[in-house]
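Q: What residues go here?
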């Protein structure tokens, strides 16, 4: 039997290729916001970051998220993404 292919994605923070399930998807909503999508099932343009807060901060600081999502990140969106990432890391929740 052929081994099952593991989907790989690149973190926009550290630029490392990792298994898709190890990363968190950030989605651009139709309203122009960006939200974390821990389930990875929301529709829309997305980008992936590691579950570490440093990768999210680096992606924001280097404007990688803006380039990948094709939006301008406002301070409110940035703050909301950071707070959501901290909440997910504090919960230690794994969506799968």
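A:
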């Amino acid at each position: 039997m052929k081994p099952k292919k593991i989907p790989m994605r690149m973190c926009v923070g550290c630029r490392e290729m990792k298994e898709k399930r190890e990363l968190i998807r950030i989605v651009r909503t139709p309203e122009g916001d960006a939200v974390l999508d821990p389930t990875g099932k929301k529709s829309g343009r997305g980008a992936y970051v590691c579950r570490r807060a440093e990768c999210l901060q680096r992606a924001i600081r280097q404007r990688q998220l803006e380039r990948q999502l094709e939006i301008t990140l406002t301070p409110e969106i940035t703050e909301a993404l950071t707070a959501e990432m901290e909440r997910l890391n504090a919960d230690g929740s794994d969506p799968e």
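A: Context that may help when evaluating the design: DSSP finds three helices and five strands in the chain. The mean pLDDT is 91.
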